[in-house]
Write a structure and sequence with these properties.
Strand content: 15-25%
Mean pLDDT: 94
Number of helices: 8
Radius of gyration: 20 Å
CATH topology of the largest domain: Spore Coat Polysaccharide Biosynthesis Protein SpsA, Chain A
Number of domains: 2
Shape: globular
CATH architecture of the largest domain: Alpha-Beta Complex
Length: 275
Amino acid sequence: MNGPGRISVVLITLNEEKNIDRCLGSVRWADEIIVVDSFSSDRTVECARAYTNIVIQHAYDGDIRQRERGFALATGDWLFYIDADEEVSPELRQEILGTIADPSAADGYFVPRKVRVFGKWIYHGGWYPDATFRLFRKGAYRAEQAEVHGGFTVPGRKGSLGGELFHYTYDTIEQYVAKMNDYTSLQVSNKLSNDPGIRVHWWKLILSPTSHFLRAFFSRKGYKDGVHGFLLAVLGSVYTFSLYAKLWEYRMREQEGKGILPPITNLSLHPYKQL
């Protein structure tokens, strides 16, 4: 398995017309680009075809499954996956190309993400460096399934790269709140999978959000990012409260055996994506 090889970049999309040129333009050096689209209603597919002729469409059934459809089509020895709101920096590009040409390279690599939130790059509060496992040998990876924040790993040797992956995340607080509503519901599913017997006591609803704010703003120096750091610490504590409140609600309804359980899966939250 060791030795230089070709690299395939995989992107999954749904209505990413505003982001896709920046994203795919940053990986046009790859040997192969594969786009798996969830039937976008905007110009996403048209824009993608300017960078690659490997564009397929499939109903969305989760990030992991969509990415694996792209992996299955890949002919490269190495895989790198990217999101439409991300951009590979020139430094990361050079490091990736050097890595896949190195016969002694590990089986997979973490890359540091630099996150832009509300129009500013964030360096504190636990947001940087946001290490994410993105580069790995095609024959070595395995999926880590989850309703949200699932990913991939390798059983063999892992390494870390230094070049940054830019992440242009929330432009507005409205976007953050909308995404938070989805993510906290899906994370209830993750919590139940990791600990089927989990319970939420009243004090958890007080202490966990408070602890998050104190860690993010003070321990992790979010205050160095100014008002942005304060807002992110507060919003993060609201995120934590919402997660545990939804988990409490789910357990309560489950125990009572009455009413409809709250949606906590991609399918139940967004059934239209499956059409």
